[in-house]
What does this fold into?
Amino acid sequence: MGVSGSGKSTVGRLLAQRLAVPFLEGDDVHPAANRAKMAAGHPLDDEDRKPWLLSLTNWIREAVDDGRGGVVACSALKHEYRDAFRRAGAGVWFLHLALDRATADHRVAGRVDHFMPARLVDSQYATLEPLRPDEPGLTVDAAADPQSIVDETVRTLRKIG
It folds into this structure.
């Protein structure tokens, strides 16, 4: 989880490979209308996010129910969204890739062929609710090397069993 540009896709893919579990790119699940809205420079609201969150929640539920597990790369900016994911199945755990705004702006501005424009980064920071103490997970510095983040994450997951 994290704002755009925090490295969710890169770290998520690496983590899924390391854990030998399926990976879901949350951006791929956005309805076309959401992608168009963001591409036009308009932030999504909770109503826009409902079908996206439902799709992600269903994927998580299936991954938990069939025992395969998985890694989902998505913003999960609000506590209520993460609660919905946690209700989808036992063992849901979050990796918050925390990143300063300047670095996020720089990374998003440098992307090619992505629907999320840099001018929406501020709206993501306005919406972001960092992990709370009652939420299972880890917050890491997303400016670190992705492989180092994966290594730290795997060590943490092994400790908690």
In short: The chain has one domain: 8-160. The chain has a mean pLDDT of 90. The CA atoms of residues 53 and 81 lie 7 Å apart.
